[in-house]
Amino acid sequence: MPETISLGEYGVNNTSNDSVWSYDHFKKNLKINIINYNETDMEFDIIGIHNVFVNSIRRILLSEVIK
């Protein structure tokens, strides 16, 4: 996995080397395991993607919580 990636106008650009980011590879490797789910809580693991993406998802979910 590259150390540096950037979001471009039409996709994700890998800026650290010459390899190309692949949606098919991403889709194949992404796994979401639900650990616990009830009326008020949900615990899950996101596996197979860079922690920067996972943190972005976490921030989006937290911004949607009614205060």
UniProtKB/TrEMBL annotation:
<keyword id="KW-0804">Transcription</keyword>
<keyword id="KW-0240">DNA-directed RNA polymerase</keyword>
<protein>
    <submittedName>
        <fullName>DNA-directed RNA polymerases I and III subunit RPAC1-like</fullName>
    </submittedName>
</protein>
<dbReference type="GO" id="GO:0000428">
    <property type="term" value="C:DNA-directed RNA polymerase complex"/>
</dbReference>
<dbReference type="GO" id="GO:0046983">
    <property type="term" value="F:protein dimerization activity"/>
</dbReference>
<dbReference type="InterPro" id="IPR036603">
    <property type="entry name" value="RBP11-like"/>
</dbReference>
<dbReference type="GO" id="GO:0006351">
    <property type="term" value="P:DNA-templated transcription"/>
</dbReference>
